[in-house]
Amino acid sequence: MPSNSLLNTLNGFLYMGQSVSDMAEFCRNLSIANCTQFSSTQMTNEHSFITINQPGLHLSQSGFINVTLLNTALRILVAQTSNILIRDKETFLGARKMPDRSRMHITTDRGSLTADKIIFLPGAFTKTMMSTLGLNLSINLYELPSAVNFRRSKSSSNLTVSTWSYVSADSDHYAGFPQDHSNYLRIEPRINPATMQTVNSPLDRTNKSDQQILDKMLTWVGQHLSQTVDLINPIMPTDTTFDSMLSDRGFILDYIPGFEQKLVLGTDSWSSIQYIPAFAEILARLVLTNGSSTWSDDYASFMTEFSVHVNGRIILPEPSVTQPPNGVANTKDKTVLIFSFLISVYLLLPICI
């Protein structure tokens, strides 16, 4: 494929906001090259496409991925690989250990399968799917407008626009991309748990954008990107996307309790997109090894943050209530399978490598 058609790194990736120091530490710990940290003053001079009184971190070898093209390319590669099987539109129903405990038996609406280990990447279905395995996670689901597209203003032709992500002090989170071939810039809202309503189930999708989210984002764009985009007649979203987030706003990359390191779980959200290459490597290692205690590099130091056992991530059952005698007690070959539910795929996906 042509250069920059799949991973576009022409203008790099710019992260701005309160967590810049954490991102910089992430770069240092994993020896990621070409990470440059800017003060709020330096941001004004180096990245003038956005007016923001915040520090920033620029990764010159990162950018965004064309997910549509990536999906097509991966399916072509899988079709040429005899030991990989894709099964679409298949619903997971349950899993149990085989009698010899060396493999897992998986039940779906199309029958059953066996595997040595299973990776779960359930996305919007995380809470529902994990409940079938006895794991009640403190995770919330949100329905967000997909994106607003703004025409690039003619007066901004001298400004370089990076792929970018911004998180404010009050947790408003937005992400944006360089202009496409039609000269429009795409800007997307991300989860702010403090102001957004949760959704009970993916089956409750409305496909109606929350106008309050859009109005707040349009105001923010007018304050910080007016020199770069034309604020008149933006193209508003006609659909929505789901996003999920743990109540502590972290991520799980860990074994599911009770299955002897046979089941691996990865929770994600759009706010974690910049970490996905590292997350993917960690998930692969969990499958191929028996835990981070055997790892000799810097990834091992992060694993306590990704544990399913971090306080508050598992909702414990309510204590049983003892009733009077007449009452009723009230209690509330090697194979790896990957179950992943892609509710909505963006054409452009920000990512850092």
Distance between the termini: 19 Å
Number of strands: 19
- Radius of gyration from CA coordinates: 22 Å
CATH architecture of the largest domain: 2-Layer Sandwich
In round numbers, the mean pLDDT is: 85
> Which sequence of SSEs, written as H and E, runs from N to C?
EEHEHEEHEEEEHEEEEEHEEEHEE
User: CATH topology of the largest domain, anyone?
Assistant: D-Amino Acid Oxidase, Chain A, domain 2
Judged by helices, strands and strand pairing, the structural class is: alpha+beta
Low-confidence stretches: 327-332, 341-353
Describe the structure concisely.
The radius of gyration is 22 Å and the shape is globular. It has six helices and 19 strands.
Please explain how this structure is put together:
The chain is an alpha+beta fold. The protein contains six helices and 19 strands. It has helices spanning 20-29, 40-46, 67-79, 126-131, 211-224, 276-288; strands at residues 7-8, 13-17, 35-38, 56-59, 63-66, 92-97, 104-108, 111-115, 117-121, 139-145, 148-151, 163-167, 173-176, 184-189, 240-246, 253-255, 263-266, 336-340, 348-351. Strand 12 (163-167) and strand 13 (173-176) form a beta hairpin. The chain is globular.
List the helices and strands and how they pair.
Blueprint: E1 7-8, E2 13-17, H1 20-29, E3 35-38, H2 40-46, E4 56-59, E5 63-66, H3 67-79, E6 92-97, E7 104-108, E8 111-115, E9 117-121, H4 126-131, E10 139-145, E11 148-151, E12 163-167, E13 173-176, E14 184-189, H5 211-224, E15 240-246, E16 253-255, E17 263-266, H6 276-288, E18 336-340, E19 348-351
Parallel strand pairs: 2-12, 9-17, 9-18
Antiparallel strand pairs: 1-5, 2-4, 3-4, 5-19, 6-7, 7-8, 10-15, 11-14, 12-13, 13-14, 16-17
